[in-house]
Design brief:
7 strands
Length: 233
Amino acid sequence: MAVAIVTGASKGLGRALAVALARRGWDLVLDARTASVLEEAAREVRAHGTRVVALPGDVGDGGHREALVAAARGLGGLDLLVSNASALGAEPLVRLDALPLEGLRVALEVNVVAALGLVQEALPLLRASGAGTVIAVSSDAAAEAYGTWGGYGASKAALDQLAAVLAVEEPGLRVWAVDPGDMRTDLYQAAVPVDDPSGRPLPESVVPAFLRLLAERPASGRYTAPALLEVAA
């Protein structure tokens, strides 16, 4: 049985991906900050018959990261690490001239520092897997200049660079930075609450792009879900 850690798994893309992996027989370690919401997601995932360990906590906490990896070890190892947990830096998003520096620090801590810390903790298990894979959930704001998205975009651009360097340093792994594109999520709604979310695709519609990567295992690199879905169609 393959084992995955998915952070930010209580809702949105993380939850949708966890459900899809469970349907395919993956055992899962799930993380999110709010225990009650995470347990609700875990119940949905467990309904597919796989083993699920739900650990509420903050990925910025080193002890929590250790616990996530220890849980994967208890399930038999680790084949996939999905860094999906994200922080915006300001809710709603604001221009750079109004961005609280503490908010930027939080975004960098969650989106970059914690993601690297979890990779460092998980590397021995990923190397031993034989098919070790890291997915860093990126954003189009990492590559495009959108007003008010500067702090969040900068953190995701840094995450992209970490993923690219990790791929060079760990050629035995697959390391993919994946831009899922626009989605109807609580994170986006918090970022731009005035936008009407109804026209945005649900996270479930993006999951096939991630599953395609796992099935075909292309070279490490940066991928966009819309391009993967277009080619698949």
